[in-house]
Amino acid sequence: MAFSAADARVLITGASSGVGAALARQLAAQGAIVGLVARRRERLAEVLAACRKTSPASAMWVADLAETSALGQLALDAWDALDGIDVLVNNAAIPKRRPVTELIAAEVEAVMRVNFFGPMNLTLAVLPRMLARNAGMIVNVSSVGGRLGIIHEAAYSASKFALCGWSESMAVDLAGTGVSVKLIEPGPVDTEIWDQPGNEEPLYNGPKFAPDEVAAGIIAALDSDRFEHYVPDMKAVVDVKNADIDTYISGAATMARATPP
């Protein structure tokens, strides 16, 4: 069934900035009722105010996705307040740029809570209701880093690989139920994720894509029959890695050694 943003009820995490905020504004401008979830109340309120100019019924919930035990109830509260959720967009994520030799377990677990366990908890909360009405869409925003290991980002890539595997298996399990799954894999996007405390300076210094461009790509994916969407299209990079993973690892390791400390 073709997707129409008009009157669709869309819950978006990580909606206070970056891709989440851009997606909320674009969907609201097209007539969707958006539910916004993020930690920063003031920033989230600014996005909500912009959305309500074209979608007065839109709402927001201040929540930290690291607090996974509360997410099930949050999802059900949002469902009731919005009178249902047609699309759940699991977009929120945190980085952790640090060599694996310097990571501690608590840091990796913190990344997994936000980037994987958060989406998992929200999805499992709304899924029974979507299945009961034979309709709904789960959109998981992973990363190119969920298809190839990024230098000094073992924790982040692990969380995004987990989200990719979860999404693939879920798509198989839900085939024919009326509930669809979309996996979004952005490349480098110009957001605050590049400048976060507790992270090394990023090694990547190439071009970045605007959040509005990625948000538009996500909206296009909602109306597609395909499961996997590279936004923008960087699938060729992943294909090269998959064709010869040993060469990829050797080349990436050489690049890491050549990077000044």
Describe the structure.
Helix 4 packs parallel to helix 5. The protein has one domain (9-258): Rossmann fold (3-Layer(aba) Sandwich). By secondary structure, the chain is an alpha/beta fold. It is 46% helix and 14% strand. Helix 2 (41-52) links the parallel strand 2 (33-38) and strand 3. The protein has 8 helices and 7 strands.
As laid out across the biggest beta sheet, the strand order is 3-2-1-4-5-6-7
CATH architecture: 3-Layer(aba) Sandwich
Q: What ranges have pLDDT less than 50 throughout 5 or more consecutive residues?
A: none
Number of strands: 7
The computed structural class is alpha/beta
What's the structural domain tally? Answer: 1
- Described by the principal axes of the CA atoms, the overall outline is globular
Task: Report the major sheet.
Answer: 7 strands, parallel
In percent, how much strand structure appears in the residues? 5-15%
**Overall mean pLDDT:** 92
Tally of individual helices = 8
Q: What is the name of the CATH superfamily?
A: NAD(P)-binding Rossmann-like Domain
Roughly what percent helix?
Answer: 40-55%
List the helices and strands and how they pair.
Elements: E1 9-13, H1 18-29, E2 33-38, H2 41-52, E3 59-62, H3 71-82, E4 87-90, H4 105-132, E5 136-141, H5 154-173, E6 179-186, H6 211-222, E7 228-231, H7 235-243, H8 245-258
Parallel strand pairs: 1-2, 1-4, 2-3, 4-5, 5-6, 6-7
Helix pairs in contact: 1-2, 1-6, 3-4, 4-5, 7-8
Question: Which properties best describe this structure?
Answer:
261 residues, alpha/beta, Rossmann fold, seven-stranded parallel sheet
